[in-house]
Amino acid sequence: MAEIPQAQPVSAAKPVQAKSDFLPVRVSGFDSLxxxxxxxxxxxxxLSGGAGTGKTTFCMQSLYNGALRGERVIYLSFEEExxxxxxxxxxxxxxxxxxxxxxxRAAIVKLDATxxxxxxxxxxxxxxxxxxxxxxxxxxxxKPDRVCVDSLSAVAxxxxxxxxxxxxxxxxxxxxxxxxxxxxxxxxxxxxPKVYSRTGVEEFLAxxxxxxxxxxxxxxxxxxxxxxxxxxGKHQKAMVPYTITDKGFQFLARAK
Amino acid sequence: MAEIPQAQPVSAAKPVQAKSDFLPVRVSGFDSLxxxxxxxxxxxxxLSGGAGTGKTTFCMQSLYNGALRGERVIYLSFEEExxxxxxxxxxxxxxxxxxxxxxxRAAIVKLDATxxxxxxxxxxxxxxxxxxxxxxxxxxxxKPDRVCVDSLSAVAxxxxxxxxxxxxxxxxxxxxxxxxxxxxxxxxxxxxPKVYSRTGVEEFLAxxxxxxxxxxxxxxxxxxxxxxxxxxGKHQKAMVPYTITDKGFQFLARAK
Amino acid sequence: MAEIPQAQPVSAAKPVQAKSDFLPVRVSGFDSLxxxxxxxxxxxxxLSGGAGTGKTTFCMQSLYNGALRGERVIYLSFEEExxxxxxxxxxxxxxxxxxxxxxxRAAIVKLDATxxxxxxxxxxxxxxxxxxxxxxxxxxxxKPDRVCVDSLSAVAxxxxxxxxxxxxxxxxxxxxxxxxxxxxxxxxxxxxPKVYSRTGVEEFLAxxxxxxxxxxxxxxxxxxxxxxxxxxGKHQKAMVPYTITDKGFQFLARAK
Amino acid sequence: MAEIPQAQPVSAAKPVQAKSDFLPVRVSGFDSLxxxxxxxxxxxxxLSGGAGTGKTTFCMQSLYNGALRGERVIYLSFEEExxxxxxxxxxxxxxxxxxxxxxxRAAIVKLDATxxxxxxxxxxxxxxxxxxxxxxxxxxxxKPDRVCVDSLSAVAxxxxxxxxxxxxxxxxxxxxxxxxxxxxxxxxxxxxPKVYSRTGVEEFLAxxxxxxxxxxxxxxxxxxxxxxxxxxGKHQKAMVPYTITDKGFQFLARAK
Amino acid sequence: MAEIPQAQPVSAAKPVQAKSDFLPVRVSGFDSLxxxxxxxxxxxxxLSGGAGTGKTTFCMQSLYNGALRGERVIYLSFEEExxxxxxxxxxxxxxxxxxxxxxxRAAIVKLDATxxxxxxxxxxxxxxxxxxxxxxxxxxxxKPDRVCVDSLSAVAxxxxxxxxxxxxxxxxxxxxxxxxxxxxxxxxxxxxPKVYSRTGVEEFLAxxxxxxxxxxxxxxxxxxxxxxxxxxGKHQKAMVPYTITDKGFQFLARAK
Amino acid sequence: MAEIPQAQPVSAAKPVQAKSDFLPVRVSGFDSLxxxxxxxxxxxxxLSGGAGTGKTTFCMQSLYNGALRGERVIYLSFEEExxxxxxxxxxxxxxxxxxxxxxxRAAIVKLDATxxxxxxxxxxxxxxxxxxxxxxxxxxxxKPDRVCVDSLSAVAxxxxxxxxxxxxxxxxxxxxxxxxxxxxxxxxxxxxPKVYSRTGVEEFLAxxxxxxxxxxxxxxxxxxxxxxxxxxGKHQKAMVPYTITDKGFQFLARAK
Lengths: 256, 256, 256, 256, 256, 256
Prior knowledge:
homohexamer, alpha/beta, nine-stranded mixed β-sheet, two-stranded antiparallel sheet, 11 strands, disordered N terminus
């Protein structure tokens, strides 16, 4: 499994080919786990794992490397402040989103989950059970190539009823798919999850499910990632160990 | 266990014998697990398994091979868009549903689970607890020989109450049975399921239950399929390992 | 454990002795597990097991062999259509209920669980919490010697409240007992059950509990039957392995 | 552990000493598990175990042997018909309650759990949360020395709310204690219970808790009895194996 | 671990030193498990364990030995009658509370949990969510040095809502603390508890948590006690085996 | 892992450098588990563990050592009385908060969880779902460098609905972050937790999660601490054993 070079300086990056159907994920050797070497545009990928497994890091690494190559990327936060996220990414991994934001290739956006939930509930009430949401409603400043929503769990707990949340998830996924973007949506689970989301609905609406495990072996934590489901093509069916270094995700090489 | 030839070009396929009571499933060697070598027309078969076990692939392989031999087949989606499904089936397995749709032998139909749930709830309200549904209500353009409903789980979560959902499932099963079609209905479960559906009602209303397991052994996933229940006849009582290749399902041969 | 001859042609069967207090079950060697070699008339026996364990087959074998010997038997279905059941029994085991129905010795009746539940709820409402049901209310065309109700699970899910269901079960059991019939009532459980019914009430209202297990050993299913409780007399306290052949249930012989 | 002679013919029994504070249980060697060799009058003993563990048999053996020695005993059934119970006890163990009933030493009474629950709920409603019940309210024809209530589980499910049931249990226990009777109250649990009653309240209101286990070892059931709690004195703290023969309970002897 | 002499005759006991901040527990060698050799006045100690673990015995031993040394002690029962408790303590352990009650050093008080719950609920209703309770409200005839409340579980089930119960527990703990008494409050749990109270709130409001385990080893029960939490000082962090003899609790000696 | 000197007398402490972005935790060798050797100002750290694991001690040690070096610290109690906490800290660890309070460097504040919950609920009601809270609302006498909230669990149970509690937690975390303080918020869990808070929301709103385990090995308790999640930087991924001595937390040294 050859290592894909990560996080090159901006000048070294080439724009991606427009209208390609597939986008490499560009997170360490992740793409080599996929037969296509990339994920499909329009796909919504559920990223599930416990606290501290690196879900945000995985996404940020993908967004950063995408933007470096000329894509437009959006990180939609329902939890941490954009200034904090950028500070941490720069400090921990030297991923500097400032120049990318200035050149319009990246946007890091914060939405208040409670406000979103209240608005959605009012819309559903007003329209008698029907919900339509547009790009503006989710705070996107432009049509992105690559998106991360962090996290659906924060959104789920803000809703008053499971039913309205499910309707919101369905419409959000449809919207993301309609923009032809590659989307990662994050779900926080137990450390060794057997269900991959709060309601169980996200995992079968999603076009793919990636699970991050955090197992305790001899009082040490070991991380592993598994591609559980992928509609667009074949993938390795195994748990791949990883660590997080100052270059982000590092997978242990495995013969494919 | 002899391999049944799969996915022959359309021209090579012969029409099935009309009025036969049984239809071969035509998914790799699956039929050899059945004493009858086929499943009964009018039977509703519950297909249960976790995310990524290949439930959709199993059904599509059966529908495609049926249509190739002259049957009329319908895939009723409550999740993925028909265009996406067709694209993925063609890309991953070379199963091209376009010519089959043009010649009227296949239909891939999408219904909105939320809308269906709301309509059913209104019907039940209006008719004081009684529900009657017809072929048109479930979006069937013709009376099919073979059907896949993907998935009941998506329908279940769209209903506001378990009771109305159960009534819907009961009536849906009766309708499918009345059309003399062989029906697969999909239920998404945990990776190693002990219950086979959301409400537990599907599994004893169904005429058969097929379970797909996704077990983690030495950090590798292994898939196995089991026929748990079948009213129409005897079957192998064991978990049969399988992989999914670019030809679809492949069972490991076992002496019967 | 001597094998009791099964399923003799009708002409070979002798009428049972009238007014006997006990009826042999006549399912392979099952009766040899009982000190009395038979079950008591008036007893309601709960038959619990997972999907595909053969609960319906067990009952049908008992009913068929009883009817062959001159008894009157009723199979009350809340799930499968009578025509289907008869077709499957004839195909799989050569048990032909048609001549038995014609001579008035067998009846296979279907009731709609939802309708029954609604009627019972209305009766309870009308009579302020009191419920009386008669033989006609449960669709019995005659007073039977042997009965199977398949399944209580289907009835349980049709009720809107647990309380009304429990009252119904209590009254149903009383009615069956009052007719001096030997009754099997089926409950669908998990494959290796620890509770034997949906509400837990059936198992202590019943005069006996028979449990059917479906355990996975080395990826093969193994079936075992256990008599867990029996008010009328002593019985073997062990799990007895069985298979289902084209002659129905076959127990592995064990010294008593 | 010496065997206490069981079930002598009536003529051979001597009247118990009046006003004794303790009553031997008289179930095989059970009394030898107790430092006092007997249980205290006024004590309410919870008898918990799964279906088929012999809870009713244990009680009946105690009642029968008590009545034989001149006590007055009552069996209060919320489940089985008195005629059936008597028939089974006579058939299975030769315990004939008829002569005991005729001489006024035994009464086997049936109450309808649903009716009792409705009456109690009305009383509580009428008296604004206060409940008083007397000997007549629970159908006792006389003040007994020994009582069995079979089962609290049947009563529990008949109540509409846990709160009213708890109040009823509390008052029932107080009433039984006030009559200076030795009372066994039965609770049906799982086969290897970890909680001993439906609501968890019975086990700490009771003066003693006896648990009956039904464990599966090598596909054979093994029964064991444990005295878990006893306010009146010390007792063996171990699981004592037992079988049920045609003489009732038989404990395997253990050095005390 | 030296044995502290237990249960001396009244005449041999010396009055405790007034105004001391700490009180020895005086239950066999328990105090040697504590760095301070005693528990703090004003502390509320939760005593959690399954049925039959000896929670009441532990408290009674502490109260009795305290009273013998001149303290004033109160046992507040929500379950057993005072006359019964005294009878059992005298019979089983020769702890005679009668002379202590006559000399005003001990009081054994019974409160009806249901009545207390109703009163508290009315007070909260009347005062719009605010609750104040005084010494009289909990039936204390005098200000005690040492108290046992047996049991909180009985109180918890008498309340109609968890919220009002929690408020009551909070106020009860504050009241007990304000009297500078050493208080044991009993909670009935499973035999090998992982949570230590019904609502989970008692264990972090308490100043200490003592857990009593009842584990089954080779079909024999083994008892062990653990001090899980203690705000006032250090303690042994291990499970200490114990038995209950006719002298009450006996810990197996362990080097500290 | 070098030991950081703990709990020097006040005179020996030097004021911390103002405006530093990171603050050492100063709890035994804890800081050596962090790549930065400190935690970030503005971070909210969830401290989760069972009763008796030392959560309060950990925080108090950090606050005390911070105040000794010139920081201003606040301990916000929702459980124990300030006078008790101070007494116990002085007695058990010789941490004397009195002089620190007098010089304005420490404040130990008690709030009534029930009152806070009622106020928050009223505010939310009044402002139609919107909640704003300020420094005064949480009883802070000054803007602190270091804070401990003990415990969120006590607050959680005081709320009538999960939704309002979640909103409160979110706003509390935002407020703490806005003050540029290093905040520890305590959550009481099971002894070997798999979820780290009552609602599951705290753990993904927090900037870090520290878990304290209390495992039973050979009947002895062993404590271990794990940093599960930390947004600001890398940390050791293992369970580090610790004991609590009269100097507070002591970690067993491990090569980093």
